[in-house]
Amino acid sequence: MVQRGSVLLALAIVVATAVGAAAQQPTSVASPTAAPTSDQALLKPEQLEALVAPIALYPDALLANMLAAATYPLEVVEADRWIKEKKDLKGDAFKGEVDKKSWDDSVKALTATPSVLDTMSDKLDWTKSLGDAMLAQQADLMDAIQRLREKARGNNKLSSNKQQKVIVTQQENKQVIVIEPTDPNALYVPYYEPATVYGAWPYAAYPPYYFGYPAYIGAGAIAAGIAFGTAWAIGRWGNYWGGGCNWGNRNVYVNHRTTNVWQHNTAHRQGVRYNNANVQQRFGNNNLRAGASNRMDFRGKGGQQVLNPGRDRPGASDRGGNVSDRAGNRGDRGGNRANTADRGGNRGSAGNRAKQGGSGNRAAAANRSRGGGGGGLNVSSGRAATAASARGRASFASAGGGGFRGGGGGGGFRGGGGGGGFRGGGGGRGGGGRRSDLALKHDVVLLGHLENGLGYYRFSYIGSHKAYVGVIAQEVENVMPAAVARGNDGFLRVHYEKLGLTFRSYSDWLAGGARIPAEVHP
């Protein structure tokens, strides 16, 4: 991973919180077997405004690509990871490799703005919610964007400048606000705080989501209104850009296809489940076929199989329980054969399909009925996110060396804290619980916060590339020390059952709806 300045720690923790446009209230859990209803994922107008608050002031061409790409969340993740692996590719060589990819054109377009793609990948809950709303409520979603633009303009925070042109015009007998780049070959991504640009937020139950801003943009600029990052050169990308929005008809188009409005293509959905019954009826059968053609059963797997098709044969990931844990810890498996109870317990914790399919994970994934309108997620934003950030900083202050390498678009951890030159994998032997020491993990990315302030992370164990979701022992130790024990190997372990959580693979978490667990019950 790219190492970024540690001065961005607070921002990285704040902007990586789980996304949604719902009240932060206890969730009523849906039945694990309940089919989606027609209104299950529909959001109220105030929820839609909260959802699009951080992007409503983006240029129309960028916004159109984001709205379309959000309906293909796994391709967004795949493209973001691919970019990070191809850092040496520049200019036309980079574009040439993108052209060869099978991603949707909207996803390909966003590779020209990697900071945007990184945000969408890191804030996967938010991205999926945006895509779900785009499919189920496109007209309502676009109306919400226009309402926010009008609020920003009325608050004297949205106007033309050297980065963008703000045009008030008529479309289909409606007054709408269009935002275009001043230079068609240079696209600037705006950064702003919703409370500043839109004025006092009227929906206390549905706070707006906030992405934060890069370190090179001063806090004073954000406090004054809209600030802009470095321009992305999009001239060489030709037809990938130039799209936009028809606000009168409430349609979007990409790839210069002004007479051919964008239509969702299930082939790029990669088997991700549709939350709304009407949407499922429109696209579901084709989506199943698309998932099958990509060798992915969306009911039990997620993006990891798409990202690593050679490693994740059907059934292989769950067959032996915590594969990455075992693969990265062969010393534990081979050197402690007498301790079979420990081995069996570890497999049961990670590989028990009954538990993965039961109420534990479903409770974490079925957060669809909160907030009165359904579709809401466990959100931390504004002051709540700041408080969670403070708790995170306090807890990680006690971690060993290495530590957080954050960034404005969401950060990650690099292993090494307290481990010196350790390269042994996911833990040592003995001690019970799940190996959760920061020193045993790499590529750790904050997905969001639980209601007690604990971070919820994506990570891999040293010696393996398979991704999991869960907590970090050093942080749990400060919040709920009874759930943490130190193993015979000297590394910290977490008893997930004491937290009311289930240790899950990242692919299983994606397939379950990519939801941040709403509550923790010790």
Set down the secondary structure blueprint.
Layout: H1 9-15, H2 45-52, H3 60-69, H4 73-85, H5 91-99, H6 105-110, H7 114-122, H8 124-136, H9 138-154, E1 164-171, E2 174-181, E3 186-187, E4 190-191, H10 194-197, H11 219-224, E5 227-228, E6 232-233, E7 244-246, E8 251-253, H12 277-293, H13 303-307, H14 316-319, H15 323-327, H16 330-335, H17 340-351, H18 353-357, H19 359-365, H20 382-396, E9 403-405, E10 412-414, E11 434-435, E12 441-449, E13 455-461, E14 467-470, H21 473-479, E15 484-486, E16 492-494, H22 496-499, E17 504-505, H23 506-511
Antiparallel strand pairs: 1-2, 3-6, 4-5, 7-8, 9-10, 11-16, 12-13, 13-14, 14-17, 15-16
Helix pairs in contact: 1-20, 2-9, 4-7
Biased composition (Gly residues): 410-433
Signal peptide: 1-21
InterPro entries: DUF3300, S74_ICA
General description of the model:
With 522 residues, the protein is α+β, with helices and mostly antiparallel strands. Among the domains are: 45-277, no CATH class; 434-512, no CATH class. Helices cover 37% and strands 13% of the residues. It has 23 helices and 17 strands. The chain has helices at residues 9-15, 45-52, 60-69, 73-85, 91-99, 105-110, 114-122, 124-136, 138-154, 194-197, 219-224, 277-293, 303-307, 316-319, 323-327, 330-335, 340-351, 353-357, 359-365, 382-396, 473-479, 496-499, 506-511, and strands spanning 164-171, 174-181, 186-187, 190-191, 227-228, 232-233, 244-246, 251-253, 403-405, 412-414, 434-435, 441-449, 455-461, 467-470, 484-486, 492-494, 504-505. The strands form seven sheets. It has a four-stranded antiparallel beta sheet. The chain has a three-stranded antiparallel beta sheet with strand order 11-16-15, covered by helices on one side. The longest helix is centred in the first third of the chain and has 17 residues, at 138-154. It is globular, with a radius of gyration of 22 Å. 55% of the residues are buried. The model is unreliable at 1-36 and 290-431 (pLDDT under 50).
